[in-house]
């Protein structure tokens, strides 16, 4: 047997021979937060002997202590609703009324349900080692106020949010987006009393690597002292309670699982036919530097303006199982996702569902003495349907040919060319644009016909965007026209973060590596007033500087894509870029979502991207 532990930033395995543990559990849940609290209770209710380890002093994590108490989408149904019903029942007995779930009451009911089910709870406890036999997890070592302790376990459920136990065990993980490793920004929640009701608001406060202790400390201190979080004066009807002590971290590490759930797979309809639950939200990316996101995400958000489209993501059991490992599951936001899809699959409802799935899988594996990866679908799915955790009829924008969805009332993609034409002619073309992409060449002849009709302006331009997403060069003349005319029209497909036609065109000419447009893109880098701010919603584009940041970053990345394709243009492109971004006074920043006070500088990032491309092109 080996003891696997982190030494500084590296994972090391030490041979320890046969170990006799003083304590043994069926299930050890590490992290009793949003997913872990449900996992511990549900496993104990299924007859498992459960130990819960939590580094804080209460259950519920971000959902309670972090005050993210309301539900921003996620799919309804599951064991967690039983707890929420208990809270609503007693809220009428004189407890302070809250907007959303009462976090203090939820702490109480989580703990009471856990104790009644027989969960042994150890607070202020941190795992420091994982015992493994090959790639099968056998137990844990942790430290608490009582010192170092150990116990054997048949199944460990990692609900730390950052895959901390999985990483310690040696499981493979991924983190952040490709260009810079950046995840989602984190938030701080401010709790208030407004008249006779407790309420809250949040602001995004920057970026943090939750696996780096020094960086977490920096983020806590900087965000807690931000001037955005405090008013000069609070009157009797608007009183501040507190700035919550737990950061609202949206993204950390993700395991590489037996079945990874990624955004490109979802876009192509390549999803599991054996879902445990359906996550449900939009692609809720809070970052405003979308030009640095993946091509898959930019196709969705920049080209089609689909940021606000809600859709369902079927989650398989394999997404909770680290690849090639047994005896360990992940639950919550650290399951096998990519950076893109994670911004949808991280909602409170779905995290709680994920905990319930992990508990059900652990109990079945223990009862049947079978590896986690070999659990039969029909052994677990009926249990999840019974509680409402798995509800096929609630799915939206998924393939209705999947088992259980044949009679679903799912909102679907468009297939009729007349419906597509009508939508492309209106102010909400995004679903038609993406439906065209899904249809592929079957719709291209119509799209090419529609781009010959400039008198029907919306149809003309939206058809060009749809064609461009299929890499058809027939779209290029229209895209160039939108850029040169500084087309500031903003569609209304999404409730937020729609993209101006000109910005969509900038991104798409970059995908085409269009050398003809290079002078125009360079001109945009130096033109702060190129586009008018026609955004109806100010959450993502809150001022002209935010708008210029979109113009600059999209143009920058388009130029670099063009240079990647055309070696003869690299030197001149790089010269122009260096003349701009290496100036001493160069600055580019955006506000963070929820605040007009906090600005996040992109200057250093942009300089790093340019210098990295200079090395890649071997021009330095």
What is this structure, in a nutshell?
With 620 residues, the protein is α+β, with helices and mostly antiparallel strands.
Strand content range: 15-25%
**Uncertain regions: pLDDT < 50 for 5+ in a row?**
none
Q: Helical content, roughly?
A: 25-40%
The major β-sheet equals: 9 strands, mixed
Mass-distribution shape: globular
Annotation field: number of helices: 20
Class of secondary structure makeup: alpha+beta
Query: Mean pLDDT, nearest integer?
Result: 93
Cα separation of the termini: 50 Å
What is Rg?
Answer: 26 Å
The tally of strands reads 18
What secondary-structure arrangement, pairings included, does this model have?
Blueprint: E1 2-7, E2 10-15, E3 24-30, H1 34-45, E4 50-53, H2 80-91, H3 103-117, E5 120-122, E6 126-133, E7 136-144, E8 147-158, H4 164-169, E9 173-175, E10 186-194, E11 197-206, H5 213-224, E12 238-243, E13 253-255, H6 263-267, E14 275-281, H7 295-303, E15 311-316, E16 328-330, H8 339-342, H9 348-368, H10 377-387, H11 417-424, H12 430-439, H13 444-450, H14 457-468, H15 476-484, H16 501-511, H17 518-525, H18 544-565, H19 570-581, E17 589-591, E18 599-601, H20 603-616
Parallel strand pairs: 3-4, 3-8, 4-5, 8-16
Antiparallel strand pairs: 1-2, 1-6, 6-7, 7-8, 9-13, 10-11, 10-12, 14-15, 17-18
Helix pairs in contact: 1-3, 1-9, 2-3, 9-10, 11-12, 11-14, 12-14, 13-14, 14-15, 15-16, 16-18, 17-18, 18-19, 19-20
